[in-house]
Amino acid sequence: MASLLQPDRVLYLVSGEKKIRSPLSQLYFCRYCSELRSLECVSHEVDSHYCPSCLENMPSAEAKLKKNRCANCFDCPCCMHTLSTRATNIPAPLADDPAKTTMKKAYYLACGFCRWTSRDVGMADKSVASGGWQEPDNPHSLRISKLIEYYQQLAQREKVERDRKKLARRRAYMPLAFSEKYGLGTRLQRQRSGAPISSISGLSLKENEDQKEIKIEPAQALEEVEPLPEDYYTRPINLPEVTTLRQRLLQPDFQPICASQLYPRHKHLLIKRSLRCRESQVLLTLTNPVENLTHVTLLPCEEGDQDDQSTAKVVLSPKELVLAGKDAAAEYDELAEPQDFQDDPDIVAFRKSNKIGFFIKVTPQQEEGEVTVSFKLRHDFRNLATPIRPMEEGEQGTEAVWLVHHVELSLGPLAA
Amino acid sequence: MPLFEGLGTGGEKTAVVVDLGAAYTKCGFAGECGPRCIIPSEIQRPGSTQPVKVVQYNVNTEELFSLLKDFIHMLYFRHLLVNPRDRRVVIIESVLCPSHFRETLTKVFFRYFEVPSILFAPSHLMSLLTLGINSAMVMDCGYTETLVLPVYEGIPILSLWEALPLGGKTIHKELESMLVDQCTVDTDSTNGQSLPSVMGSISESIIEDIKVRTCFVSDLQRGQNIQKAKFNLDGTAQRPDPPPDVDYPLDGETILHIKGSIRDSVIEILFEQDNEEKSIATLILDSLIKCPIDTRKTLSENLVIIGGTAMLPGFQHRLLAEIRALKEKPKYKQSLSNKNFRIHSPPAKPNCTSWLGGAIFGSLQDILGSRSISRDYYNQIGRIPDWCSLSSPPPESVYDPGKTPPPLMKRAFSTEK
């Protein structure tokens, strides 16, 4: 059974852009193109989002709104483990009678792995179990949205300008200077009005649009930068108080240096992928065993075959081998009758439900090293999916397609 | 920050903005205030234990294609969680990025992921969008190198770039050699061992962590004293008192004692002037004296510092002080002594500033559409336009045949010819 852990013994050749050899367990089959596909030749798509700790499936729109983060679960900012909500009882005055005190539940977040709690950061205990915790906002978000508005206005102007230019008559007799916005004509105009040459803001001098001008203050440069505080050179460092680079980069908006400012973040979601065959755009499934009889012929590789990388000659049985169909019920039925196939005992070693073992003779051609054998496996395949072409009435099965796969067997090093 | 991302207006979906740095990749969506994720630019291959760096310029095309493919696959399906086919892509790049890398990246995006369009945006230019100004002298202190590029009125002045291979990587190397020479390690059984005897070599991520948590940049006076003491030309220079030592745990039982003197002196290599009297501070001044005279005032009063290495404590203060001290030197005095140097503080951390600029640009949907390279154009032409190659035809025929092509300056700003 050690061979289960060595899936690379039997490799199938996938004819895509690159020739990839891969064990069958890692391959997919496209029913439409009738070809083997590997992970490299398919296109991956995002199927659905889910949270890894609460396993809740999120619809894509909600995931987008929440920035791919779960609403309920939090990550510890120190060790990235999932935080759990713990409750304590604290005495608190009753609303109607300040004299009496009663026990109220207060909730805080704690990490079971590194013992971080939300109290370390100064977050007050909340009175609801979930939904009370907020992530801090980026302090610059207002300024950034103003900048985006301003640039969007400039972009609008440029677009209008461009559209107008396209519609305007092209005057071929005018030199280059007057027809482009970088030409001399417009430059002269600008110089007269004394405005700076600019590829971004020069358009503001054209005929006005009746929009409101959005003006922003350009950033002011500072004369002085804050120096390091004096005690920086003499103060000893408390290493656990300083955040590591990884902890900082998990919070790109803030990147705090002190551990006392490391706030927890909502947990990031994961996705389920769906794979599409690139050529036929059909969703793929794993190689599926068919239910009817399959005839298999083993053919030797041709001499001039470029895919042949074998180091041994192989003698294959010329006769056809017949594989019984897969009968799902037979697995549970111990008294299944053996199907009557006439097996040549020289070729067939054993037969069990839909598997068969067969002999091949191998003659190594090299003195030492790995022995690899390659041959072509030809089998018929009946497409059980609904065919594209309309079928005539009364026709039961679909027609069989003969598929040829190039198979490589690595038999291990040569024993002395 | 818009709550409804364009679904109400019926517009297209928000673009994906990626800044592929040599050490870290910043990735997120256009129109947002910060990247969704900042992850190391490396992938874990199933065969090897160590992760492999993605941004390498010396591997052959096939290997690079496969590295980039796996990395971008991880970006889309683990961090962004969207379909690649639906959204335009904005890639923030350095102007000195090799064409081979750019071509392979484009091939991965168009051929494998089938994105609708790509825009390559220069990082120095994008950082200006976060400030609302048109001209600035931008310095990007990254992992492999520090690159200075002036931008005037929205156009990067490409011929005036200045760069030095001093960045995070050099700091790591210097720190590692200092640790190996000077520091001792306590294991559970012994004390005071030298570092190489306990572990073969320290991994770069541990060195990076030591740099980030314990090291800092001293101010000008102290820094110059440290440099003098190191080179000790007079024999009399006295090193200022070092900061306290740090005990850094390597794992449960092994503790590395980091000497205090390492903490403030390792980053001095960025400011030490080498044989050609270059340091990262002189880069700005060298670029400035080459600039046209009229532009110098505006550029010197608008300095923008971006990049992860610029986030070290005390870096910006020291840089400004160095520039002010250096401008009195005879080389620069004539042209620059009367200039005021001022520095901006963008609304984002220095490592995300150019990402944020790309996100602002990516939210302008019409402009993004007209300036990007579409998949059809790429399939037709077979390669992407590059600022150093003049033979690609324009995506739209704005210019009649027979007329002269637009000047190089315009090409630098937009990717259409």
TrEMBL record, chain A:
Stretches of the chain forming a coiled coil according to its record: none
Q: Provide GO CC annotations from the record.
A: cell cortex; centrosome; dynactin complex; myofibril; stress fiber
Q: Which InterPro entries match?
A: DCTN4 (IPR008603)
Q: Which UniProt keywords apply?
A: Acetylation, Coiled coil, Cytoplasm, Cytoskeleton, Isopeptide bond, Phosphoprotein, Ubl conjugation
What is an example of a Pfam family matching this protein?
Dynactin_p62
What subcellular compartments does it reside in? Cytoplasm, Cell cortex; Cytoplasm, Cytoskeleton, Microtubule organizing center, Centrosome; Cytoplasm, Cytoskeleton, Stress fiber; Cytoplasm, Myofibril
Q: Show the stretches that span the lipid bilayer.
A: none
Entry superkingdom: Eukaryota
> Which family does the entry's similarity section mention?
Belongs to the dynactin subunit 4 family.
Subunit structure comment from the entry: Subunit of dynactin, a multiprotein complex part of a tripartite complex with dynein and a adapter, such as BICDL1, BICD2 or HOOK3. The dynactin complex is built around ACTR1A/ACTB filament and consists of an actin-related filament composed of a shoulder domain, a pointed end and a barbed end. Its length is defined by its flexible shoulder domain. The soulder is composed of 2 DCTN1 subunits, 4 DCTN2 and 2 DCTN3. The 4 DCNT2 (via N-terminus) bind the ACTR1A filament and act as molecular rulers to determine the length. The pointed end is important for binding dynein-dynactin cargo adapters.
Q: What is this protein called?
A: Dynactin subunit 4
Lineage of the native species?
A: Eukaryota, Metazoa, Chordata, Craniata, Vertebrata
From TrEMBL, chain B:
Known catalytic reactions = ATP + H2O = ADP + phosphate + H(+)
What are its GO cellular component terms?
A: cytoskeleton
Looking at the record, which segments are called Disordered? 392-417
Keywords on record: ATP-binding, Cytoplasm, Cytoskeleton, Hydrolase, Nucleotide-binding
Subcellular location(s): the record lists:
Cytoplasm, Cytoskeleton
Q: Which GO MF term does the entry hold, naming one?
A: ATP binding
The family database entries (Gene3D superfamilies) matched by this protein are listed as:
3.30.420.40, Actin, Chain A, domain 4
The positions making up the signal sequence are none
Quote the SUPFAM superfamilies the UniProt record gives. Answer: Actin-like ATPase domain
Q: Which domain of life is it from?
A: Eukaryota
The record's listing under InterPro entries reads:
Actin (IPR004000), ATPase_NBD (IPR043129)
Pfam families xrefs: Actin
The Swiss-Prot or TrEMBL record describes its family as follows:
Belongs to the actin family.
Function recorded in the entry: Part of the dynactin complex that activates the molecular motor dynein for ultra-processive transport along microtubules.
Q: How does it assemble?
A: Subunit of dynactin, a multiprotein complex part of a tripartite complex with dynein and a adapter, such as BICDL1, BICD2 or HOOK3. The dynactin complex is built around ACTR1A/ACTB filament and consists of an actin-related filament composed of a shoulder domain, a pointed end and a barbed end. Its length is defined by its flexible shoulder domain. The soulder is composed of 2 DCTN1 subunits, 4 DCTN2 and 2 DCTN3. The 4 DCNT2 (via N-terminus) bind the ACTR1A filament and act as molecular rulers to determine the length. The pointed end is important for binding dynein-dynactin cargo adapters.
The record's section on PANTHER family has: ACTIN
Q: What is this protein called?
A: Actin-related protein 10
